[in-house]
Structure formats: structure tokens, C-alpha cells
């Protein structure tokens, strides 16, 4: 799969939720994790993050939304249950993305929502646990951007063939003389 992603949280207060989120990011191949104004010491998350994500991928901690720094070209995707958010099954994930989720008993701050390039929601009847929401978003990214065979038409049917990538001809940005 081409591209990269990071996963972060804003204002989160439960170390086990941070640990579960960061573990999911690590398991799905995340390139970095981040926390904005956390109400926990994010290094105390190892009870739920037995993969010790912060020792495997970069961990960035920001005091405020204004301090959030993402790589050039990286799109910020807020995960929030709002009326105008795109439902996750209809969302095309950016190749370079940073997903951010809000606190357990709250929402992403208006300042952070304003900064997001996209806002997505999981089409559920009510809010679900923040660590479960993060895992669902990353799973959706994997199945939409990964290379998997088409689903069978019927349960137990044959899985579609995975097509090999075909490289095109070499392209030159300037003409050779």
C-alpha cells in the first residue's frame, strides 16, 4: 500500500484508550502517533499498548491545536459524529493522512475541526468507544487502499484475483539532450 498515515487524539483522559488507539495504529502500519493537549501522561499507556508503539514509531505530543505540525502534504482527517461529516464507507482516504479523534466524553474542539481537511463519521446509532472508533477507521483505510481480491458474490464463494501492479514506462520531468 502506498502512502502513510498517523493517528492522534485530542484532550483524551484515559490511558487505556490512548494505549488501545496507539496499538491499533502500530498494528495497521501507522507511521506516527500524536496527542494534542492530553490529560494523561501518554507514556503511561503501556497497560493497553503491549506493543509499546511509542518505542516503535514517532510519538508527537502538542500542548495545543496551534502547535500541531504535520508532514507536508499530509491531510488532517477528524473523526467526529456530526451532521456534515462524510460517512466512513463513502470516504476516499488520502494517501497521506493523519486521523484525529476527540476525548472520551466530548468532541473535537472547534479549533481542531476548523483545521481538518476532512471530517468523517462512523455510521452508528450513537457514539462508540474512542479506541474502537480509531480501529474501525484504520481498518476501513486498509480495506479501501490495500490490495485484496474482490469479495465473493455469495458466502463461501471464490475470492477475486488480486491483480499484479503493472509499472509504466519511465517518465522524465525534463527532456534529455
Description:
This protein is an alpha/beta fold and 177 residues long. The chain has one domain (4-145): SPOUT methyltransferase, trefoil knot domain (Alpha/beta knot, 3-Layer(aba) Sandwich). The protein contains 3 helices and 7 strands. It has helices at 15-27, 110-115, 130-145, and strands at residues 4-10, 32-36, 59-62, 75-79, 86-87, 96-101, 118-121. Strands 3-2-1-6-4-7-5 form a 7-stranded parallel sheet. β1 (4-10), α1 and β2 form a beta-alpha-beta unit. α1 (15-27) packs parallel to α3. The relative contact order is 0.19. It holds the Pfam family SpoU_methylase. GO terms for molecular function: RNA binding; RNA methyltransferase activity. Keywords: Methyltransferase, Transferase.
CATH homologous superfamily annotation: SPOUT methyltransferase, trefoil knot domain
Specify the helix fraction band.
10-25%
The helix-strand sequence is EHEEEEEHEH
User: Which fold does the CATH topology refer to?
Assistant: Alpha/beta knot
Characterize the main sheet. Answer: 7 strands, parallel
SSE layout:
Blueprint: E1 4-10, H1 15-27, E2 32-36, E3 59-62, E4 75-79, E5 86-87, E6 96-101, H2 110-115, E7 118-121, H3 130-145
Helix pairs in contact: 1-3
Amino acid at each position: 500500500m502506498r502512502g502513510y498515515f498517523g493517528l492522534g487524539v485530542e484532550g483524551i483522559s484515559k490511558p487505556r484508550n490512548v494505549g488501545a488507539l496507539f496499538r491499533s495504529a502500530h498494528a495497521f502500519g501507522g507511521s506516527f502517533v500524536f496527542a494534542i493537549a492530553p490529560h494523561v501522561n501518554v507514556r503511561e499507556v503501556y497497560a493497553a499498548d503491549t506493543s509499546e508503539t511509542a518505542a516503535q514509531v514517532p510519538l508527537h505530543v502538542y500542548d495545543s491545536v496551534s502547535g500541531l505540525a504535520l508532514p507536508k502534504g499530509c491531510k488532517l482527517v477528524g473523526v467526529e459524529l456530526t451532521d456534515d461529516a462524510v460517512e466512513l464507507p463513502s470516504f476516499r482516504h488520502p494517501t497521506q493522512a493523519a486521523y484525529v479523534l476527540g476525548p472520551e466524553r466530548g468532541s473535537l474542539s472547534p479549533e481542531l475541526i476548523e483545521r481538518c481537511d476532512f471530517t468523517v463519521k462512523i455510521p452508528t446509532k450513537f457514539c462508540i468507544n474512542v479506541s474502537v472508533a480509531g480501529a474501525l477507521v484504520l481498518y476501513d483505510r486498509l480495506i479501501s487502499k490495500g490490495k485484496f481480491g474482490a469479495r465473493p458474490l455469495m458466502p463461501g464463494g471464490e475470492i477475486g484475483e488480486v491483480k499484479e501492479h503493472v509499472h509504466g514506462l519511465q517518465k522524465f520531468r525534463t527532456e534529455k539532450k
